[in-house]
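Consider this:
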Amino acid sequence: MAKIVRGFAAGLALTAACLSASAQESAAPQKPLMLITWFGPGGIALPIGTDWKPELLAVYDNIQRPVAQFNNPVSHVNVSYILFENHSGKATSEGCQEDAITPILQNQASVISNRKDDHFAGQSGQTFATTAFLVDQSVARIPHQRNLFGFVGDAKTCAEVHISSFGDDPRVLQAMQTVLAEFHPDLDYHPSAEDYFLFASILYKEAPGLSAPYYKEFLNRLPPGPQTLSIRRVATDQLVMALGMSGDLKDSRAVAEIAIKDDPDYPLNYYSLACADAESGNAAGAQEHLQQAFDRRANVIKGESMPDPQKDDSILKLKKNKNFWSFVQSLPGN
């Protein structure tokens, strides 16, 4: 299971602020962050209002199943939005329902009761397959958790909403039904380059490895040319670091080497190779690539600065090599 991104709230707030500023400049309506996969169609517009507090963003099952969770501090309702590929063999909402609910019932059979499967017509005109049940909490004050799931799907994509709360207050039950009614995933949504970049940027904050396939898709869709050079450099650098920090040094190096062929003047491409060299204990390679990086230090993006190799975890792995470390200390700015 992939690592949970605890920085989702901060990341989503920053994204929302950026999108809001952009919308004000263009007089266009604010666009919500989209929950998307990196490998196919489908999208769920995530809440952007003040009623819902973002709690986590995660990608489960080998970076195949993105999920976003929110909490409403007024109604005390939790909601999770999930996208996943339809492997049920049924191009229906019921196929998605079966795929998601069956393992839950198998793993928690002893504490689940009052299961009910049904259908629900949402405000968007979509008809959801629904499942509701109680989960015993074994606590006198809170006897059970109430769960409500909604599913819609086609041959390729499943979209799920999971709504939960504790107790049986009529206002809470109504709030749960309202969330279900307002669920309107777009199974035909084709993410834009911007969607991939925003999603990857939030994931990168605390789980860099999860962001890598999203950065790759962003770069695949980014049009070539000088007008996109700066953002391509940023995304490439993030991708290289994401792969390296997740232990995939081979792909990290490959991305940096391709970037050097396409953009030989950008110093951080060489710096990334130096880090990969240092991780593998190659002091000669690290020194060569650091020299190439600092020879091009004038070409950093405006507002950007060269990293300090003396504080870099990768470069520090070669600190015991006296000749190499003497070279590091001689670099400009050190």
